[in-house]
């Protein structure tokens, strides 16, 4: 990720609301609106931020997604599947018994391993997140919390 995109992302992530207008970003980062425009275009393309209209206004603001890291990492599944499909074709093309075929096959096995591990990580994270949210909710509604 380029430096300006990183700065914009960090600024959004650190904001209380998780959303800022282009003008707010430019002011906070002390950069031009053009720099913000390029950064949010990239961040939108990689689905790390989304554009939304400010209520009652024509101005747009940019919001960091609630589960941005989860989405950023798990959305790579499609890419992994494309890579593995290409590698399978490569093994077939050069032959599994050739040196090139063995190298390609090892790459394929590694990516299959990564995909499987990602599935396990995804499941464990969703379970852990649900448990943490339930704990927080219990703390809020328990003794001393709002009721």
Automatic annotation (TrEMBL):
SUPFAM superfamilies given in the database record: Winged helix' DNA-binding domain
UniProt KW keywords: DNA-binding, Transcription, Transcription regulation
Domain named HTH marR-type: residues: 6-60
Gene Ontology terms for molecular function: DNA binding; DNA-binding transcription factor activity
Domain of life: Bacteria
Pfam families, alphabetized: MarR_2 (PF12802)
Matches recorded under Gene3D superfamilies: Winged helix-like DNA-binding domain superfamily/Winged helix DNA-binding domain (1.10.10.10)
InterPro entries, sorted: HTH-GbsR_regulator, HTH_MarR-typ, WH-like_DNA-bd_sf, WH_DNA-bd_sf
PANTHER family in UniProt: HTH-TYPE TRANSCRIPTIONAL REGULATOR MJ1563-RELATED, HTH-TYPE TRANSCRIPTIONAL REGULATOR MMPR5
Protein name according to UniProt: MarR family transcriptional regulator
Lineage, broadest ranks: Bacteria, Bacillati, Actinomycetota, Actinomycetes, Kitasatosporales
């Amino acid at each position: 990720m380029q430096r300006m995109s990183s700065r914009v992302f960090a600024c959004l992530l650190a904001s209380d609301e998780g959303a800022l207008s282009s003008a707010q970003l430019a002011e906070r980062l002390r950069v031009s609106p053009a720099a913000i425009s390029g950064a949010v275009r990239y961040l939108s393309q990689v689905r790390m931020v989304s554009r939304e209209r400010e209520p009652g206004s024509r101005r747009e603001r940019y919001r960091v997604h609630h589960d941005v890291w989860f989405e950023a990492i798990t959305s790579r599944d499609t890419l992994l599947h494309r890579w593995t499909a290409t590698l399978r074709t490569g093994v077939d093309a050069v032959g599994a018994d050739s040196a090139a075929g063995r190298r390609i096959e090892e790459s394929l096995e590694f990516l299959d391993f990564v995909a499987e591990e990602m599935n396990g990580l995804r499941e464990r994270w969703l379970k852990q997140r649900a448990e943490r949210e339930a704990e927080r909710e219990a703390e809020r509604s328990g003794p001393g919390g709002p009721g």
